[in-house]
Amino acid sequence: MASDSSKIWTVMSLVAGVGAASVARKVLDTSWKAASGKNPPENPADPDTSLGEAIVWASVTGAFIALARMLAQRRAADYYARSTGHNPPGLRKGDTR
User: Fold this and answer.
1) Distance in angstroms (rounded) separating the CA atoms of residues 54 and 48
2) Average pLDDT, stretch 78-89?
């Protein structure tokens, strides 16, 4: 039974994280276009992209996507806990990584 619980949590966490990252990326792309009037850099490592623009884009996307994934996974963990009566595997007191 613990194995099934672990598999369910793995899928829930993965779906929440990937979905949040996808939505965050769309929000960032739209916001960048609105703020700068141009498309976000497709590849910040491209020498044709200014260094400042590359740094800002990489910093903002990294932080925003990580935050969105964390919040989505916390919500998934809360849903899991409410549904099962205990925290998901790896988030229980005494669990080690």
Assistant:
1) 10
2) 90
